[in-house]
Design a protein that fits this description.
By secondary structure, the chain is an alpha+beta fold. The protein contains five helices and five strands; from the N terminus they run ααβββααββα. The chain is globular and about 45 Å long. The termini are far apart.
Length: about 200
């Protein structure tokens, strides 16, 4: 299983032999070592530090956008934060906001360059969701009509039954949101008191 994960990881990020690389990716705030002092071997961190090749299409102080080297469609790109966060929930909201704020700008350029008029925005968060590179990233996947990219598009969706089970699910999600919101507010207040 580990070999498969490594193969998938490498297939997404390593340009094929003979491909031309754009200018090197600039150094960034992505940590060069882990908490125990070992070098961070995250392939996205290596790309951000300029230690691994990638085709960069956008870069700012917070994030980088590269072409996926094994795309699902022509122009498939990845928006990556320059700091290492293993999952979406570990990524600070301002970083997620900065990444998301670039989506309209970058996706518009990708659609024009590829002749597409649509795109999917995708985050694989966690192994069960298909995440193989544990560094937060957002996929921009250009689409054309009837490209048959997702087999699930041919599946017929069922209408949500507005029954007791659905109501319980909605209540449970709202309860979790309230709990998480209160937890964040208490954390903010505690950190504010510590600074006094």
């Amino acid at each position: 299983m580990e070999n498969w994960r490594l193969a998938v990881l490498c297939s997404h990020l390593r340009p094929t032999p003979g491909s031309k690389s754009s200018s090197p990716v600039s150094s960034s705030i992505c940590g060069s070592s882990s908490q125990n002092g070992e070098t961070n071997s995250c392939v996205f961190c290596e790309i951000i530090r300029g230690q691994s090749p990638a085709l960069k299409i956008y870069e700012d102080d917070i994030c980088l956008c590269i072409l996926d080297t094994h795309p699902l469609s022509h122009g498939h790109s990845l928006i990556i934060p320059k700091s290492h966060f293993s999952s979406l929930e570990a990524t600070p909201p301002p970083v997620v906001a900065a990444m998301c704020s670039k989506v309209p700008f970058i996706s518009n350029a990708i659609m024009k360059a590829t002749g597409c008029d649509s795109f999917n925005l995708l985050v694989n968060n966690g192994a069960a969701a298909g995440q193989v590179i544990f560094h937060t990233h957002i996929h921009i996947i250009p689409r054309k009509a009837r490209d048959c990219l997702w087999t699930s598009e041919s599946l017929r969706r069922r209408t949500l039954k507005l029954d007791h089970e659905a109501s319980q699910l909605a209540d449970s999600v709202r309860e979790q949101l309230s709990f998480l919101n209160n937890h964040e507010e208490n954390k903010d207040q505690s950190s504010g008191l510590a600074g006094d």
